[in-house]
Amino acid sequence: MNYGELRTKLKKGDMSQLYMLAGEEDYYIARAEKALLAAIFPQGYGAEDVQLVDGSISINELISLIETVPFFSPKNVIIIRDAVLFKAQKKGDDGEENKLVTKKSSSPEVRLCNLFANMPDFSIVIFELRSKPDKRKKVYKEFAKYAQIMEAEPVKSYNIDDWLQGKLQEIHKNMNPEAHGYFLRAMSMMDNIPLGFLDKEMDKLALFMGNEQREITREILVQVFSDIPEIDGFAMNDAIGQHDVKKALFLFQKQQDKGVYIVAILGQLTYYVRQMWQTKTLLQKGIRDSALGKVIGVNHPFILKKIIRESQNFSERVLKTAFLSLAEADLAAKTGRCHPAEVEAIIIGLCARD
């Protein structure tokens, strides 16, 4: 299940004594831990109510912790961070924690698996893993029979809408279509979407707007996201797509003023030009919709439509010239020979009406 499904279960009171929060998206693991503790301790909790344990703990020590009756709290809540128990064993790794989960030393493992099936009423165990668990392990297979397992998959532009809609509900706001399109397109320009940072920025946006104003417009979104370096690059490309040379050059200079390395600026601009050129070429060959999106690496239909519309603003000649010039500029930048004026010339050429 994902984070949203876990939250739904908790709201319905569908609780377990065994949990695993695993995956590559730290944001969801941290949020899930917070939601679980709030559900376990609805009146609040203190440091003495939760035991934080290093993931390298041995199976025997873990069993002892689970079976220990709590003295100062109604529940014995144990959180195992970076749970080695469920990690894939590396070749040549003969550490104690890995020896304990192999078939050759079955006694501790069998005891733990039996404990999973017959957990004491007072204990709740939450395993956390910042990667995917090894589902081939016997201990995982037994654990999965009795546990609720949340998988925190990395968030990309094609699936960020789930996070966005949940966040908008949380802050009691909505986005108009123009702002929504801007948000999705901006996220598509990022290799790694910083959910933790975005979460805080959306909270700031809600405070900035106040309780009365409910609709997020593009103008508000641009203002709030102006501190994200990638957004400046996206905004520059967006201005180029609209042939707004003054704004595009301003945003190029703004990125340099913030200390963004020119190679990074060139990389994002090259990606944009390549995407426009690919789209235009594929359209001329009669390739459209999802088939086109698959080639250029875009899954979200809204983003794809915008890219198709934007590509019509350029001639193939202009895109080809810009792409070749960007390749030369990139090589020069990596050897310390690229002057910003060369990039400005490329931007001006892209903005010029052919």
CATH class of the largest domain: Mainly Alpha
Helical percentage: 55-70%
Strand content: 5-15%
How far the N terminus sits from the C terminus, by CA atoms, comes to 51 Å
Largest sheet: 5 strands, parallel
Could you write a compact summary of the structure shown?
With 354 residues, this protein is an alpha/beta fold. The protein has 17 helices and 7 strands.
Report on the architecture of this protein.
- This protein has 354 residues and is α/β, with parallel strands linked by helices.
- It folds into 2 domains: 3-152, P-loop containing nucleotide triphosphate hydrolases (Rossmann fold); 160-351, Zinc Finger, Delta Prime, domain 3 (Up-down Bundle), CATH 1.20.272.
- 57% of the residues lie in helices and 9% in strands.
- It has helices at residues 3-11, 26-40, 59-67, 96-99, 106-117, 138-146, 160-171, 177-188, 195-209, 218-224, 229-241, 245-257, 262-284, 289-296, 301-311, 316-334, 340-351; strands at residues 18-23, 50-54, 76-81, 123-129, 148-152, 174-175, 215-216.
- The strands form 2 sheets. Strands 2-3-4-1-5 form a 5-stranded parallel β-sheet, with helices on both faces. Strands 6-7 form a two-stranded parallel sheet.
- β2, α3 (59-67) and β3 form a beta-alpha-beta unit.
- The radius of gyration is 26 Å and the shape is elongated.
- The protein starts with a helix and ends with a helix.
- Residues 94-105 have low confidence and may be disordered.
